């Protein structure tokens, strides 16, 4: 049984760290790269030199016998969905952070960036089925609840069914949203629901890797257990051929995933438990800013 005081302390530490990062680094960038759904009419006012003549309201102009223009404001509010993998493979970590802890920290930054811009944030946790859905809302307390669930929710399942999670989200969200999918993507075919999601929403894929999953150490014969299925296999890691085959398989899987994201036109933010995720996030925001300015 986890100590509630320790849980609260960890959530508070994560809040302070991620809020500081958001305020120092990402607040302005987030606002500039994630736009609202359109423009809202605000008022009609007299024409001033320099106003765009295309904004002239000809009906009011005719009645008042002097030029008037329509004024619009950006419809800023967005819906942000965090789709986070909580399958058993996320507990793996060969360095300081596990994949799930890294996912929670990155998701916290995105959540606080969103609420700082008055956007709504929701959460969908999945393993071999959808485990938890929290509808999008605003506010600090709501965000703290999301962080708590991302860190401490105990899923019933152990596997990874990303297809089911995306299908669930596609049915649930009727309006366009910004969707961050944070997962190791160690799942069976999810191409179709990912394609549908990419057409309906602004989907950002955030694949997480751990160095221990990409290269086998040379430590002789060891028994590996699949965290999700419980299946065990003995491998002789002293064999260079075995190590090379393992690394080659991981490289092939990663390239296949990258090709899928690229062909579906999705933004990608690669994350690794042994690397500074701030570098990847900054690069992502910079890429989107350049693309929107072009």
- Under CATH, the homologous superfamily of the largest domain reads von Willebrand factor, type A domain
CATH class of the largest domain: Alpha Beta
CATH architecture of the largest domain: 3-Layer(aba) Sandwich
Estimate percent helicity: 40-55%
Tell me the structural class: alpha/beta
Radius of gyration: 23 Å
DSSP summary: helix tally: 9
**Estimated share of beta-strand residues:** 15-25%
Strand count, sense and barrel status of the largest sheet are:
7 strands, mixed
How far apart the termini lie comes to 53 Å
Could you spell the SSE succession in H and E letters?
HEHEEHEEHHEHEHEEHEEH
CATH topology of the largest domain: Rossmann fold
Bulk shape: elongated
On the 0 to 100 scale, the average pLDDT is 86
The stretches of 5 or more residues where confidence is low (pLDDT under 50) are: none
The structural domain count equals 2
Number-wise, the strands total 11
């Amino acid at each position: 049984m986890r100590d509630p005081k320790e849980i609260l302390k960890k959530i508070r530490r994560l809040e302070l760290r991620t809020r500081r990062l958001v305020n120092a680094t990402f607040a302005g960038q987030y606002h500039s790269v994630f736009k609202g759904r359109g423009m809202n009419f605000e008022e009609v006012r007299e024409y001033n030199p320099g106003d765009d003549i295309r904004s002239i309201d000809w009906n009011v102009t005719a009645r008042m016998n002097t030029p008037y223009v329509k004024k619009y404001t950006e419809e800023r509010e967005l819906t942000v969905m965090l789709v986070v993998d909580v399958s058993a493979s996320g507990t793996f970590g060969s360095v300081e952070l596990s994949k799930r802890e890294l996912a929670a920290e990155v998701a916290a930054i995105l959540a606080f960036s969103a609420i700082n811009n008055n956007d709504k944030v929701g959460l969908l946790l999945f393993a071999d089925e959808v485990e938890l859905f929290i509808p999008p809302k605003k506010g600090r307390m709501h965000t703290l609840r999301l962080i708590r669930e991302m860190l401490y929710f105990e899923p019933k399942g152990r596997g990874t069914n990303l297809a089911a999670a995306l299908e669930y989200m596609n049915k649930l969200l009727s309006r366009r949203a910004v969707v961050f999918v944070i997962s190791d993507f160690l799942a069976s075919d999810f191409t179709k629901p990912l394609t549908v999601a990419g057409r309906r929403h602004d989907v950002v894929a955030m694949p997480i890797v751990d160095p221990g999953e990409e290269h086998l150490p040379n430590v002789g014969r060891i028994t590996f257990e699949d965290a999700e299925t419980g299946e065990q296999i003995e491998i002789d890691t002293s064999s260079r051929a075995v190590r090379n085959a393992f690394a080659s398989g991981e490289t092939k899987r990663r390239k296949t995933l990258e090709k899928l994201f690229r062909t579906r036109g999705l933004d990608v933010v690669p994350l690794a438990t042994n690397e500074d995720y701030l570098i990847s996030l900054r690069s992502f925001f910079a890429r989107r800013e350049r693309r929107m300015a072009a």
